[in-house]
From TrEMBL, chain B:
CDD domains according to UniProt: TM_PBP2
PROSITE patterns: ABC_TM1
Family: Belongs to the binding-protein-dependent transport system permease family.
Residue spans crossing the bilayer: 20-41, 116-136, 148-168, 180-199, 228-249, 281-302
Membrane topology: Multi-pass membrane protein
Compartments in which it is found: Cell membrane
Database matches in SUPFAM superfamilies: MetI-like (SSF161098)
Keywords, alphabetical: Cell membrane, Membrane, Transmembrane, Transmembrane helix, Transport
GO biological process: transmembrane transport
Xref: Pfam families: BPD_transp_1
Residue ranges of domain ABC transmembrane type-1 in the record: 112-302
Cellular component terms (Gene Ontology): plasma membrane
Protein name: Carbohydrate ABC transporter permease
Amino acid sequence: MDQVTLVTDTNSSFVDKAADAAVRATPTTVANRVRGMSDRSIAWAFITPTIALLLAINIFPLLWAIYLSFTNFRANRPNAAIDNVGLRNYERVLNDADIWQAMQTTAHFVFWTIVLQTVIGFTLAYLIDRKFRGHAFWTTVILIPMMLSPAVVGNFWRFLYQPQIGLFNYIVSFFTGIPPSSFEMLGSVSLAPWAIILVDTWMWTPYVMLICLAGLRSIPDYIYEAAEVDRASGWRQFWSITIPMALPFIMLAVLFRGIENFKMFDMVMLLTGGGPGSTTEVASITLKREAFESWLTGRSSAFAILLFVAVFGLANIYVKALNKVKQR
Amino acid sequence: MSSANTAHSVVEPSATTKRVAGAIVIIYALVTMIPLGWIFLTSFKSPPDSISYPPKIVFTPTLEGYCNLFTTRTRQTPEYIESLGPPTSTCDEITRSRNMVIAGPSNYWPRFQNSMIIAFGSTFLAVFLGTLAAYGFSRFRVPLADDLLFFILSTRMMPPIAVAIPIYLMFRGLGLSDTALGMILLYTAVNVSLAVWLLKGFMDEIPREYEEAAMIDGYTRLQAFRKVVLPQATTGIAATAIFCLIFAWNEYAFAVLLTSGTAQTAPPFIPTIIGEGGMDWPAVAAGTTIFLVPILVFTILLRKQLLRGITFGAVRK
């Protein structure tokens, strides 16, 4: 029988367990007796390189970005004098209508991709958990899209979405009778946001499905057997057992998809590049435009820091909620 | 589950339920495979077939897309082409039939090689460093372990573009911009967070009594690590390596911002493949097909470990 466990406890979660393990692990007499390096020096020799690399390539640039966010530095003019402008960059970002527009676009994208992926992903997981013949094989087939490169596949979806020659328009027209050249998924202001939501859903529903499936398999059979003895209807069992017990897993999937889609860049960049106009310009694309096209390095750094703080803050609040649900 | 209660078991769905569930799942799977099937088909179409209306499902397959992917071509007069000797290869023949001659190799193969060097290099480094760090965190009392581990995980939450600006500046200062070494270091740093988390989970599952027994038998801790722990962790290390490889292979944001020429990988290159008068979709499809095949193989190899990898070890099976 598959044994499935959910290990996230909290943000310090994963971590308390680590500490416990370390306490249990801390070798006593055995270690002290042995020859060679002491455990302490081995521990440090093993951990330091990783920490050093993360400091150099993750933390140092982040600190640098924080510093730059208080300056008027422009990366395309490295020799110009750098002035400290205090909080002005942050002020400008927070008062910039374009940036709020981008945040709304991002919110729309994140909301609908999560809704669609959770509904379809959970349904699929529920159906796969009926354990029909060949379910393992078809599960693997379903998983394929999420392993592929969003940029390379997103680029090809551009071809599928072509108004006259694209397969997508052709299939839609085949089933609905709407002429295939009468609508442009990527070129129309009303359809483009849905075009990117559709590709994201195609790609990442398997991800949510896989986590939901783990959730469903973590529910022990005896609970359903007990419910049956109590003559609970199938409907009742679904809402009182299946959903509540799978909820922490569903929430975990939503967390991971939320973080990923909040910083979505590659797929949207290749599909629409933010267009038409700025209808699909999600936060990362605005950031890229400000940083690498307008070269407003200071201002874009301020925006980047605000985004990071937002993801980090929201994720932490969410993990707290997740733990409450888990402890129920 | 005993066979006696299977007939009435509440946990064993009825045959009809199974059939309906299976049908829906299979239809979903087949529909989601259409785009991938279409990429594969398009890679064997001629450029006119690829943009015909209605889209062609039946067509004469040709290797033109693959030829165009790997070569650059120049248009020539029919007289000039006549004057050449017999075609030296299939691609030569196809190119000539379009009144063109092969001018030289395209950039696809160098970009593909870059992808391989950078993906394998960074995977090796990330798994190497990750294995050591994971063992350290799993077996020893490390001061501030909680904070360090959470810090390692949180580096994954940063939008790549957010750190791309200072990394761009830093690489420019160090002479690492547009170099394979720079990209390897960058992807290693991104992947090592995943590697430490996953590997620590795998190592926590190896009973520490094994090493203690080995050490009582006279092994040093390092020997015990090498001869007892590592062999036990092989599956976990292999799975972690494949996850790192897939990330590095698929990555686009850093690659497009930090590489432009010599170190450019395939993902930023493939969308720039163009033919005469617009996108050369068969060539793009051919490049995409070749690029996706390794990942398909890995996905099948990984399917048992997939869940753990995509949730940072939060869900274990």
